[in-house]
Fold each of these.
Amino acid sequence: MKTTITVNGTARTLDVDSRTTLLDALREHIGLIGSKKGCDHGQCGACTVLVNGARINSCLSLLAMHDGDQVTTIEGLGTAENLHPVQQAFLENDAFQCGYCTPGQICSAVGMLQEAADGWPSQVMEDVAAMVDLSEAEIRERMSGNICRCSAYPQIVAAIRSVAGDAA
Amino acid sequence: MRPFTYERAPDALSAVKAVAENPGAKFLAGGTNLLDLMKLDIERPTHLVDVGRLPFAGVEEVNGGLRIGGAMVNSKLAAHPRVRELYPVLVRALVSGASGQLRNKATTAGNLLQRTRCAYFYDTTKPCNKRQPGSGCSALEGVHGAHDAIFGASKACIATHPSDMAVALTALGASVETLTPTGASRTLAVQDLHRLPGETPHVETDLAPGELITAVLVPPPPEGGQVYRKVRGRASYAHGIASVAVAGGRVALGAVAHKPWRAAHIEDALSSGASPAEAAEAELSKADRNDHNALKITLVGRLAAAAIEESKTRRVA
């Protein structure tokens, strides 16, 4: 079936099997292999992309559900010469070892920072109606959908905190 | 995944008719649970009717309460200013569930209708009456006491309903509004939506084939503090071993039964002046005890007592 999505600013029309997930469409049909297939069940977060600005697991979504949507992958966040601030912060904080989870971590962090800026609550807040203060505990909670098996968590939190601090 | 056909429903009635007329059809909204189960060959729909873009994604104020669209995603519901102001128990339940990515896709209606996380339901090499009616219940002989039902279970199934949100909605006395295949609308209480397993654990709700949850109606917040507490194997992004929602004098328990469990004995005891611990004992003394679940029964009782105690000091909406 035919579906049109805009990926990193470019409209793409695909005519593929209805079973095709957004992740497989990006990797196998469009050739953007930055988004990773880790668990393929929404548990690891390596496939995280931004759809209309919101972070989602692209492995648990059918391409057909996204007709007309704006998709941003790691390839659309920055370039080698002009990194996105979160990409730069991951470099400066040594926030990865093998790098497999990193595209998902960075896309998730970009989405999460916007959610926090919009005042979205989390379960570690004492009062869910209060303002968001992106403490280490908040970042750890809000990033719990992204697993890093090299366990670079302290550096990932530090990288995200440095960007959150710059934005504040 | 097995092959299926896909259609995006132009309106709610078309969607309801498309599913009602086709025994192999299912609604698709966020897809976070259904697509996962399809990949595992546990769900096998032959046709998907996408209702994710139907115009049921907002929150309206109605008679001092709220009408929440069935297609509203969990993250936006938790972030809604009126929900944060009036229903902290609902917000806390929502943000206790899943991950940031999943909450951006999972919908209000889909959250209510998610399937159990019983390990034997997921293990397609083992019998499971919910997955394959009549095949037996592997969990009965298993040693997964922490995740099994302690109320209302049967010889056919001891699975629990995994939703956090549904537990808060039960404590708040919420109801669902549906659209039936005849085009009529009806409402039923969230606490009456799900069935106990009995002999037919594969039949999980009282919804008719094709009946679509279009909204959740939440009455005005009750007097008294609101609390949601959850115990699980890790600090975040895990299903509960047990949870408790308190909203004024109403109490519901999660991960203890085939449905969100309204703790009527706790409520009665509290209204008769019992202490939180005595009230919890009034409910837990009626739990189904077996060789595996003593820890869980103790844990649920302590959690309930602590949550009721905490509700006395919590912000009143």
Amino acid sequence: MALENPLFEFLLRQGDNALVLGHRTSEWCGVAPILEEDIALANMALDLIGQTQMWLGYAGEVEGTGRSADDLAYLRDVYDFRNLLMLEVPNGDFGRTQMRQFLFDAFQVPWLTRLQDSRDTRIAEIAAKCVKEALYHLERSSQTVIALGDGTEDSNARMAEALTFLWPYSGEMFVDDATDQAMADAGVALLPSELRGPWLETVKAVAAEACLTLPDSDYAQKGGRTGFRHTEHLGHMLAVMQTLQRSYPGATW
Amino acid sequence: MTHENEWPLWEVFIRGQHGMSHRHVGSLHAADAEHAIRNARDVYTRRNEGVSIWVVEAAKITASSPSDKGPLFDPARDKVYRHPTFYDIPEEVGKM
Amino acid sequence: MYAQMVQSTGKGLQDRKEMSPEDQAFQDRIDRGEKIEPKDYMPDAYRKTLIRQIGQHAHSEIVGQLPEGNWITRAPTLERKANLLAKVQDEAGHGLYLYCAAETLGVSRDELVEMLHSERMKYSSIFNYPTLTWADMGAVGWLVDGAAIMNQVPLQRTSYGPYARAMVRICKEESFHQRQGYHIMIKMAKEGTADQKRMAQDALNRFWYPALMMFGPSDKESVHSAQSMAWKIKINTNDELRQKFVDETVPQAEFLGLTIPDENLRWNDETGHYEFSEPDWSEFFEVISGNGPCNVERLNARRKAWDDGAWVREAMLAHARKSQKRAQAAE
């Protein structure tokens, strides 16, 4: 199947990951376990919203039909979203939220680091800005995962459960497809599968400190980053997120 | 009611952009020192306020006692010769 | 205000002749404009009143996250979402600064939180009203933060050092909050569609009187206020602040083309102030005593967040203690 606009597709994947995870993270505002963590989660969500604006803004330019980052965020439906399934499933408890953040950050750091060398200078610039944020996110999420895994019997059980739940979703990050190949051929990005090794090393090291055992299944839930089959959760998330833009078409806010 | 799981209180000191000394900016709760540094980053540098953070557990600070205020600080009051304005320099010497 | 109807001694202003020599010296320091610091001598009643006031102020910031947090996931653009999230995050920060100020008086944050959850301490009545449309984000920022700023700016001069310093930081950070809200109102009421204009007016209709109530009932005769003012932990009377708020807000509403829901509102040339209707104080007392539209939900949301987070707080501390032991063993 010929690819219509692989660069656009690629940018949507970056932007939608940030958009969806930023949205989920913002749901913690006001109800986190303690004020310090509430504030830290909001910082993380704010970083991700900023990243969304950059990725989707550039996606709109590449598409060339005049759609803005907001148009792309607020006026597409489920089947047009290109985020990882792992990021759209509900937050669960604080432990699962942190585990998801960690599994994603452990990918984002090497991914964005390498994207800084992209032949597409805009992508390289955006990646350079995002990688600094991702590095801090990884530090915070990995330390939190370690603390909660090591903490008490109860917290260890919760983190083990979170890891078991998220593990099959994490595999989706490394499944290459034609879009990835096109980007690799053009020197825009590396193949995600190249990062599975480094990612696994990071995850193993943190899991060991967190007294957690990695599930041995390699099965990957997928369909998010290709848009082929999302979870049922994304539709509900979009119904909330897009309500004003959908209810009052054309209004400015 | 006991609060055995309350995280200790930390005092936070931040050095701003312009090379001044670390300054006390406030307090927060954290489980340990590294956690306190991260929390300080998130709580007290949201507006680009700092380039360096110190944290110290509040319980570990030794403070001067208010009742010592007289003996500690009054003796410095009459040492006016420590201040440059104490010395008159003739105008023709210029800026010094 | 964020700290409404704070009880002091209940005995009215203490006569100087009845004061102990320490208390006289203490009052003299305040009269000279000196700051009282945590380890300084202070009368027990001053300490207790301050804990109540700062604690109530802190609780208001934290509960105050909820009505606005209600719209973060529905903000209409990415920029609006970021603005609102940053603002609600600031409220968490302000709660944090205030709890820390209260902690210098010998009460822990967890104790204060427990008192909130067991309804032994209050928070501002305003946060017991629902936020129903996006225009409410405008109205809350414009009116509620506007009213809060009226009270908080003078509190930067309050006599208790840690409280004053917290207020300095809070006022600096808050300066964008009211503008953020007013900006939403401009977009909707002045530049918006017919629907948006209706939403904006509707929000003003619902928030006007609750905003006036934030300052608390008239306290000209209040025994608590007289003592608190002598201690400089309350700087203006409720009526002064309410009048100032109305005087500043009415022209802002006119600019938006919105109507303040008060038939008696008129400019008085002689006094140089607006005349306005008092809010329904019976409603205020109902809300304060737990019968407002959202009291139950707000407190339950706070309790749930706290209870759900208990395992996290416990585990992080357990990990810190284990790490410390491991480090000591390795030495």
